[in-house]
Amino acid sequence: MANAGFHAAASGVMGYQSALDITANNMANVNTNGFKASRASFQDILYHRWTQNERVDRGHGMRIDKTDLMFEQSAIRETGLMLDFAALDEGFFAVENNGRILYTKDGSFGLTRADDDGEWELCDQSGGFVLDYNGDRITVPFIGDSSEIDGVALLDMVGVYSFENPYGLNQIGNNYFEQTPSSGEAAADPELAKRQGFLESSSTSIGGEMSRMIEHQRAFQLNAAMVKTHGEIGDVINNLRN
User: Fold this and answer.
1) Which residue from 20, 100, 170, 228 lies 20 to 30 Å from 180 (Cα-Cα)?
2) Residue 48's pLDDT is what?
3) Residue 1: pLDDT band by 50, 70, 90 thresholds?
4) Most confident of 18-32, 110-124, 159-173, 203-217
5) CA–CA distance, 229 with 70 (Å, rounded to integer)
6) Shortest CA distance to 74 belongs to which of 39, 35, 104?
């Protein structure tokens, strides 16, 4: 039974350490445009049922069952910049990055010179090419022969995509998501709202994350103390045997 208690406490240490890492990542991205916070969901590990005198369920610890993405609409702030876009609700921008099609909520775009024909193309902060509704790179339109960008035409060109289950997307870093069998394939959706001259803020709530950090930290410390206590009990038992 001592071993069971030790392993239960050890699983708590590992589980709450992972939860602290998730919370720390959320807090680190409080100022990241379009960032979506994650939440850890916990699950009990195997139970044994004892029925000698009475029915008692004895657990063997916990683990993180899954990490959920929180896709609720974040605050939209106005920047007034023609190359800033916000995809509202569950819309995403598609980006071609190193031959991969990825998706992001960060609409802070810029311009890059195309290698083949010298045209200006729309890109994101990582240098990926922003795609239109047909999955093609966007050649930035200008008004006549001037250097002034045609903002109205550009707004129509920027593609917005949706997923049957956005919570099944895989978060791969650099504010990118990739589709999975669970999320379903991306579908271009011109009906989804987008706004030019605006950016979506991070969904991280500092107050909420601080509360979760305190909760996870105290649970981590409690489980660590339990591990230490079981180690000391084991030492006492070994000394008695000797």
Assistant:
1) 20
2) 55
3) very low
4) 159-173
5) 37
6) 35
Distance CA 123, CA 229 (A): 56
Task: Using the structure block, give the residue that is written with the tokens 């001037």.
Answer: 146
| Bridge partner residues of 130 (DSSP) | 95
Other Cβ atoms less than 10 A from the Cβ of 23: the count is: 25
Do residues 62 and 229 touch, judged by C-beta distance below 8 A?
A: no
Nearest to 124 by CA among 70, 176, 72: 176
- What is the model's pTM? 0.77
Hey, which residues does 102 pair with through a beta bridge? 95
Residues 6 or more apart whose Cβ sits within 8 Å of residue 156: none
Written as one letter, the residue type at 194 is K
14 by Cβ neighbours in 10 Å (0-12 / 13-18 / 19+) ranks as middle
pLDDT single digits (tens) 28-43: 888 889 888 888 776 6
Maximum Cα interatomic distance, the chain, rounded to a whole number of Å? 93
